[in-house]
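User: Here's a structure from my thesis project, written as structure tokens. My advisor, Dr. K., wants to see whether a designed sequence matches the one we expressed. Can you design one independently, without my sequence as a hint?
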């Protein structure tokens, strides 16, 4: 038991998938894992451990945004010894070379959050994916006939920004998409010397205004989970 997670010692696997939505964690446990056992329901932030292709793996929601993810990821690594963390989430595309439904592997995560400014006393840190997990995920995606984008995302503290054109500055520096969690995930993984990756599907497009219908999001979500499981068990 840690401050926010009710699992007993040893109940969480070394590899974990992290969707934002706890009901997505339940969906993954019920549709992909053999004999899933729920280890957490505090705040309805469901977490499960089961087996995938015979190997032990866990899945847990993180909630939305870096403060929520940070609490769970700190405790998963520090208190439960998790070593490989793969976020499976959605993002808003900011550049024309991406289309809705595309898969993106986040190589780096810029941020508008002050969290790393505070942590690094005003200096800049560059949150970066695990190259090993990134390569494994890319191979798993290519084996499924996909051509995932690989590049930088921006993890924002605001879904509703004061300036509706704020994203254009990031886009002009080559940032592919916006989401709200990856910079903190990569920073914590580096701090604790473990591996992390974010696999994202484009749910909406800031350039074209398109969005994916719910049923398609589920289909794409399944593909992303398979790629994530391939990486986390690599
Ligand atoms: N902004 C921030 N986070 C997101 C978005 C977005 O447009 N789409 C999916 N996650």
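Assistant: Designed independently from the structure alone:
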């Amino acid at each position: 038991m840690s401050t926010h997670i009710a699992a007993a010692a040893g109940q969480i696997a070394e590899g974990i998938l992290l969707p934002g939505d706890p009901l997505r964690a339940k969906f993954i446990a019920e549709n992909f894992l053999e004999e899933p056992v729920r280890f957490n329901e505090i705040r309805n932030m469901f977490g499960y451990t089961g087996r995938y292709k015979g190997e032990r793996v866990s899945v847990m929601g993180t909630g939305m945004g870096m403060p929520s993810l940070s609490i769970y990821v700190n405790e998963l690594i520090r208190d439960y010894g998790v070593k490989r963390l793969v976020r499976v989430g959605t993002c808003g595309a900011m550049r024309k070379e991406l289309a809705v439904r595309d898969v993106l592997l986040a190589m780096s995560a810029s941020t508008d959050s002050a969290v790393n400014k505070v942590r690094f006393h005003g200096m800049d840190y560059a949150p970066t994916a695990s190259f090993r997990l990134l390569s494994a995920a890319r191979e798993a995606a290519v084996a499924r006939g996909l051509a995932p984008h690989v590049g930088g995302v921006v993890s924002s503290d605001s879904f509703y920004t004061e300036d509706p054109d704020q994203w254009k500055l990031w886009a002009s520096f080559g940032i592919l998409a916006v989401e709200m969690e990856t910079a903190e995930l990569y920073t914590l993984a580096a701090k604790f010397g473990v591996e992390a990756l974010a696999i994202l599907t484009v749910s909406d497009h800031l350039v074209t205004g398109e969005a994916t219908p719910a049923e398609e999001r589920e289909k794409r979500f399944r593909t992303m989970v398979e790629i994530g499981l391939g990486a986390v068990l690599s």
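When you compare it with your expressed construct, this may help: Residues 90-92, 156, 159, 178-180, 203-204 surround hypoxanthine (CB under 6 Å).
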